[in-house]
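Hey, I'm writing a tutorial for new members on how sequence and structure tokens pair up, and I'd like a real worked example in the thread rather than a made-up one. If someone can provide the structure for the chain below, I'll link this post from the tutorial.
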Amino acid sequence: MTQRKMAEGKGRSNLQNLFRTERVPSDNQIRNLLDPLEPGRLSPVFARSLQELEAMGTLDEFRNEAGHLLVACDGTQTVSSQKVHCEQCSTRALANKETHYCHAAILPVIVKAGESRVIALEPEFITPQDGHEKQDCERAAIQRWVKRHGEALAKRNCILLGDDLYACQPICALFLEVGFDFILVCKADSHEMLSQQVEFLSKNGLVQEFSTRKWSGRFYRLSQYRFVNHVPLRGGEEALAVNWCEITITREDTGQRLYKNSFITNLALQADNVALIVQDGRARWKSENETNNVLKTKGYHLEHNFGHGQAYLANFLVTLNLLAFLFHTVLDLLDEQYSTLRKHIVTRIDFFNDLRALLRYMLFDDWNHLMRFMLIQLEIIPDT
């Protein structure tokens, strides 16, 4: 409505100038046009963005010390309702006998330990074809994603990171078949056979151990590592052999445990690489902190229902949201004007609010005009 009024008053609108539209469509028209479109139609945009980062050499800056790209995968709910739904919705029966409708997706991102930015990859939506159990749904979705994108990513020397849900033989075997290395969280209570084997080997002195000591600024952290190679992921003669490691971090002065986790990987473990592999494994949390949390609480409103539709609209709009998130990262990495502005307008919400206000009241010729105006008004560059 605002852009339509601007077009009526000024003869043009920011929607037309910045996005090159011929006319200003209504919200309902946009929804009606997008509803029949499958999200997969946007696949080339994700691929092109990754190619651009690769061509500029920026993608290499996300590689770990061994030259790998870390791809963290995690499932999250996008939109939900007890009333609005479509054929793409997953369903769950509630205690009050009502039906809960929702959309969910796996949101893979390229991460790096110590780097706050992540590079979003194409999502995989969890759909009713997967069944109604969460684990079955997410496991089926990650396997579809790997089969669809594995060839293109594996040649880039990727390690897949994931939680305990993915640490099962069918998924690990698929990772290896496609050409992915993996580092996955492995909980003892869900991997009984593996845990028993590690305990047996430990009692016989076959599990290697070492520790490191590091000053945190207030106290010393003791990191105790344990690792062993070639243990069965599950029972049975055809069990996949994996390599297992564990880290326990405690405060030296009080003995308080600060962190404990264990991982499985196909990468051979040695005393000189375990700490780095654990560090990479822990980077999986960036899929929750720097991705899901940002998308839901920092101005993208991923869980908001912008339009549900009857076919693909909800998932298509989520994909557009993820593309916006990706573009903002690409601009921050490659565009000097954008990255300079973001250093001065630190929070995403403040930056988005500034853009929204400027585009509501002022007409700009193009994005460069808008960026320069902001830089000048904030006195970051001179008005020349």
